[in-house]
Specification:
Blueprint (H helix, E strand, L loop, with lengths): L9 H16 L5 H13 L5 H7 L5 H17 L12
Length: 89
């Protein structure tokens, strides 16, 4: 069962701030804010392909902006994609 994220969760607050910046100016002028959000979201368990695309500066801006929208849906619905960990054999 997934948990719905509330509007007071720190990840939601940070997402809203980054989304507002990106909606206004695009990704490029806000690389530091996007980088911080990607790191925070990854630690919170939202390690999806969309999050990886959002954090990849080599990807086209429009693709990164769409990835932000996908991550926003995941955060809003509480749908986490933990980053797999590997262990040494």
């Amino acid at each position: 069962m997934t948990r719905t994220t509330t509007l007071t969760d720190p990840i939601t607050t940070e997402l809203e701030a980054v989304a507002a910046l990106v909606a206004h100016d695009g990704v490029a002028p806000h690389e530091e804010a996007v980088r911080r959000f990607v790191a925070t979201a990854g630690v919170a368990g939202y390690g999806s392909v969309a999050l990886a695309i959002l954090g990849d500066r080599s990807q086209p801006p429009v693709l990164r902006e769409r990835a932000l929208a996908r991550v926003a849906v995941d955060v809003a619905s509480g749908r986490r994609h933990p980053v797999p960990t590997t262990t040494a054999a």
